[in-house]
Design a protein that fits this description.
By secondary structure, chain A is an alpha/beta fold. Chain A has one domain: HUPs (Rossmann fold, 3-Layer(aba) Sandwich). The termini of chain A are far apart. By secondary structure, chain B is of the alpha/beta class. The chains are: A alpha/beta, B alpha/beta. At the A-B interface, α3, α4, β9, β10 and β11 of A face α1, α2, α5, α6 and β11 of B. The structure holds flavin-adenine dinucleotide. Flavin-adenine dinucleotide sits at the interface of chains A and B.
């Protein structure tokens, strides 16, 4: 069966580089590059593999500012067929409620059998957008997918990685899954892929294309408000023991015991 | 945060707002600051501006009506195999404080089967005013769609002001569905909760891999909902029950139907795997040199009564399954004690464990970045240090 697969991707700052100046309280952005959210590259790879195996299409979609175009091209270069940039000033300030509403409207327009998201985005770290899309489109979901075991006409069998083990679930199609890293190893872009990515003409959707009420978009449609952002308290400097292993171990155990840690 | 406006008379074009912006959302065009498409209205620039040239535009959204009808604090009583999870008690501890600050009751919502005894025990032992218990065979095992529908129905019927759940796989999977269904905000993975002077819930959480903290409000929608990171809040002492009541709620049968079917659950055989909820974690990295040396890490974990974690390098090398991976593409953990053995401390690993209470690093390289976040460190060879440490811990416990 040919699957229409839609993969949601987000362009994120490489968060390992994002820091706050604890004195000035401002963000240090110097040298921070934008990347495809790591969990989303597993989602794209899975979408491309499913399409290669079962036939169909793999379409990537992102909601973001115009510069998110690069992230979409990166996905084309690793095998996605089509890419949609959902972009409009009206979307600015979206929380996960408004983001999932907007993406759901775009995906409805694109058409789908299976939606794949990353487990979470490494900047917002909420893991809420995938399930949110599922509700807006009235779909079943399987979060934390680590393996797709079978794809049938009407359903698929998915292994989910939970705290204490692995759950196997049969989810009917259409449906939505979010994936963890274990699911695959993303390929590198091929030369042909890179060429296609360069020339590919992105498809664009704006608020007007999506038939949504203005009050439900962006900041106005977002129940949550970021009140303030601040640097986490710095960690106190550590005590390092060197020398004879036996003595070091004694000192460590003593200090841990003194502080009630062991 | 309402939208922002730049007062051109005041703007000095100094660019401090540009430096402050987390989204690359403002630029200096000519001599004046100007918002770009990527602006997210977060307001960081407003605080950074030395000229007070960035001001808040009046929030046009009318204060929503009917918010006063929402009362009380609810905690989602997550259960596995009929056992109430520890994170629920942590939330009862925290929820009690919030409920007292609001002078409202604290309720726990339990969805399950044959759990009346467990609900009564919760009421007897802990400071909970009421347990809402929804009983059905279909609720014995967690499934996001069904749990989401039942929980949304109850919220509509009973109107709690605040709803908390553990930021576990289950909590995160279903509360995000509930938030969309009942049309309210949800703040993810909170590590701090408090009531502000206006009576709103201030939800503080790490973002950007813990490099930044954000405080989030949900001013015009109810309930105000958060998932809360396990192991951060303190459970109340047992024996603090206050004679709370049990209310059994009959579910709407039609809402118990799930489109998905759970076929099987395979528990990971090692008891050492649930790193997300462990008090103590001992992790191994590439510095172990090979899979055989993970035994040393496991022995120490066992001696300490902790779980075993791993860096990405050790997972990619096939020494440990992915479920043990700590870090950006693995799990975020915050145990009381995190022992990093042979882990260099790449930022991608640090973002997954830097909020642990106490961090111990054992590494041969005194310049390894892990020592920068470590509370204590030992510079030495793992193969030598770990067995000695394990022995001394066991000796101490034997006493
Ligand atoms: C500091 C800070 C804290 C925040 N905290 C909260 C909060 O607690 N609650 C809240 O509601 N909002 C919060 N937000 C807003 C939230 O980050 C944005 O709404 C964001 O657009 C989506 O959420 P996420 O990044 O957490 O995505 P996640 O839900 O973590 O992403 C899961 C998956 O959804 C897909 N996805 C996510 N965003 C997009 C997109 N724009 N385009 C395409 N696919 C996408 C991807 O597949 C991704 O892997 C916060 C923002 C900041 C800056």
């Amino acid at each position: 069966m040919a699957l229409r697969i839609v993969v949601c991707i987000k362009q994120v700052p490489d968060t390992t580089e994002v820091r706050m100046d604890p004195v000035k309280g401002t963000l240090i952005r110097e040298g921070v590059v934008s990347i495809v959210n790591p969990f989303d590259s597993y989602a794209v790879e899975e979408g491309v593999r499913l399409k290669e195996k079962h036939g169909g299409t793999c379409t990537v979609v992102t909601m973001g500012p115009p510069q998110a175009e690069q992230a979409l091209r990166d996905c084309i270069s690793v095998g996605a067929d089509e890419a949609y940039l959902v972009s409009d000033r009206a979307f600015a300030g979206s929380d996960t409620w408004a983001t999932s509403l907007t993406l759901a409207a775009a995906i409805r327009k694109i058409g789908f059998d299976l939606i794949i998201c990353g487990k979470q985005a490494i900047d917002g770290d909420t893991a809420q957008v995938g399930p949110g899309i599922a509700v807006h489109l009235d779909l079943p979901q399987a979060t934390y997918a680590r393996k797709i075991r079978e794809v049938g006409e009407k359903s698929m069998i998915i292994e989910r990685l939970l705290e204490e083990g692995v759950e196997t679930m049969e989810m009917p199609l259409p449906g939505l899954i979010t994936v963890v890293k274990e699911i695959n190893e993303p390929r590198l872009p091929s030369l042909k892929g890179k060429m296609r990515a360069k020339k590919y003409e992105l498809k664009k959707l704006t608020a007007a294309d999506l038939d949504l009420q203005p009050g439900k978009l962006g900041l106005d449609g977002s129940p949550t408000r970021v009140m303030k952002i601040f640097a986490p308290p710095p960690r106190a400097g550590g005590e390092v023991f060197k020398g004879e292993a036996d003595q070091c171990a004694d000192k460590l155990v003593a200090v841990l015991a003194k502080n009630g840690v062991v | 945060m309402p939208k922002l406006k730049i007062i051109s008379d005041k703007c000095g074009g100094c660019g401090q707002c540009v430096d402050a912006c987390p989204y690359d959302g403002i630029e200096i065009a000519g001599t004046l600051a100007k918002f770009k498409d990527s602006c997210n209205w977060c307001g960081t620039c407003k605080d950074a501006c030395p000229f007070e040239a960035i001001v808040v535009e009046e929030d046009k959204a009318p204060a929503a009506a009917g918010l006063d009808a929402y009362k009380g604090v609810w905690v989602f009583g997550e259960q596995r195999d009929g056992h109430i999870q520890r994170v629920v008690l942590e939330l009862v501890g925290e929820g009690r404080k919030l409920a007292d600050a609001r002078k409202e009751p604290l309720c726990v919502l339990v969805l399950g089967d044959k759990m009346e005894g467990a609900c009564k025990k919760l009421l007897a032992d802990y400071p909970v005013d009421k347990v809402y218990y929804v009983e059905a065979p279909e609720l014995a095992v967690f499934e996001a769609e069904v749990y989401g529908k039942i929980c949304a129905d109850l919220i509509r019927a009973k109107k709690p002001e605040i709803m908390l759940a553990g930021a576990t796989c289950a909590g995160r999977s279903f509360l995000s569905r509930v938030a969309v269904e009942v049309h309210t905000g949800l703040t993810a993975d909170c590590t701090g909760l408090a009531i502000n002077p206006e009576g709103l819930l201030m939800q503080t959480r790490p973002a950007f891999g813990g490099n930044i903290m954000a405080t989030i409000l949900c001013p015009n929608h109810r309930p105000q909902m958060s998932t809360v990171r396990p192991r951060v809040m303190k459970p109340p002492a047992a024996g603090t029950g206050r004679g709370g009541t049990l209310e059994k709620v009959a579910p709407d049968k039609a809402r118990l139907l799930s489109r998905s079917k759970i076929l099987d659950f395979a528990a990971e055989i090692e008891e050492t795997v649930n790193i997300a909820e462990a008090d103590i974690i001992v992790s191994g990295g590439r510095g172990l040199g090979g899979p055989e040396n993970f035994k040393l890490v496991e022995d120490l974990a066992k001696a300490l009564g902790g779980a075993v974690g791993s860096s990405r390098a050790a997972v990619d090398a096939g020494w440990k399954p992915y479920s043990h991976q700590v870090g950006q593409t693995g799990k975020t953990v915050c145990p009381k004690l995190y022992v990093a053995c042979g882990i260099s401390g790449a930022v991608q690993h640090l973002v997954g464990m830097q909020s642990s209470d106490t961090i111990v690093a054992i590494n041969r390289d005194p310049d390894a970045p892990i020592f920068k976040v470590a509370t204590y460190g030992i510079v030495g060879d793992l193969k030598e240090v770990l067995p000695i440490l394990t022995r001394k811990i066991l000796e101490r416990k034997g006493k």
